[in-house]
Amino acid sequence: MAASSGITLTSGMRANLYSLQNTNSLLERTQKRLATGQRVQSAVDDPVNYFTALGHRQRSQDLASRKDEMSESVQLISAANEGVESITALIASAKSLAQSALSASTTTEINTLYSQYKEVLNQIDQVGEDSGYKGVNLLDSTAITHTVKFDENGDSLLTITGFDAAAQGATLSLSTHGTNAWVSAGGTADKAEINSAISKLDGARSALRTEAQKLSTNLSTITIRQDFTKGMINTLEDGAAELTNADMNEEGANMLMLQTRQSLGTTSLSLASQSAQSVLRLF
């Protein structure tokens, strides 16, 4: 500054000025840390900590997206499970109708029960068709699969396979016949045919329980991974904070000390300039 302006400072003034400039720089940095709560705000402050924290936060954001995807997968399985529970209730209703037909005494009564039985099977089909979530229906067929990705790269995953929940599909294997399917040649209840229907209903119920168990296992796995991912997100965020956040108590103490130093530096510079001012007394 002296060379460019042609002004010559005494060594004492120069030393005090330099000290005051450093104090003001530290004071500005401390004020910024107190305002933002961070001691590392850019790569200039600390390249290693800055980029390490940035990596932690980026991974945390990726995992947060995966966590949202897992939440959607949970809803998909819940929708399928709702369908399974409703179909199970409909199978119980169909079985009750078949059992009533065994003791029915007239052809009209038997045919009425069978007609109601077929309607229940039709409702099973409709429930299966309505059990989708966001365009994916796990009760549609075994060709339907849904992949849940757990890690940020998608290397850790779970594939969920659907099943055919239609009444006459591969899983339930329920069948219907003609109008008088439960009526024997003599006009009474065809117990062999009705018992066969009851047996198939029992088999369908068992098959549904097996599929429900698979859904439950998948749901449990996803829920566990959700909790794990939530913990990892918190760990990464805490790690990034430890690398970049400022200690507010320490910075507050620094602020008080720097303000005191600034005041003393101003006073010291004023005292150092008095020797130069004494020259004026000669005139």
Topology:
Elements: H1 2-5, H2 11-36, H3 47-102, H4 107-129, E1 145-149, E2 157-161, H5 191-244, H6 248-277
Antiparallel strand pairs: 1-2
* CATH architectural category of the largest domain: Up-down Bundle
Q: What is the rounded Rg?
A: 40 Å
Strand tally = 2
CATH level 1 class label of the largest domain: Mainly Alpha
> Helix count?
6
Adjacency order of strands in the biggest sheet: 1-2
Distance between the termini: 28 Å
Question: Helix and strand succession?
Answer: HHHHEEHH
Task: Provide the descriptors you would attach to this structure in a database record.
283 residues; mainly alpha; f41 fragment of flagellin, N-terminal domain; 2 domains; two-stranded antiparallel sheet; 68% helix; rod-shaped
Q: Overview of this structure, please?
A:
With 283 residues, this protein is mainly alpha-helical. It folds into two domains: 2-37 and 247-282; 48-243, Up-down Bundle (f41 fragment of flagellin, N-terminal domain), CATH 1.20.1330. It is 68% helix and 4% strand. It contains six helices and two strands. A hairpin with a 7-residue loop joins strand 1 (145-149) and strand 2 (157-161). The longest helix is centred in the first third of the chain and has 56 residues, at 47-102. The radius of gyration is 40 Å and the shape is rod-shaped. The model has no long low-confidence stretch (mean pLDDT 86).
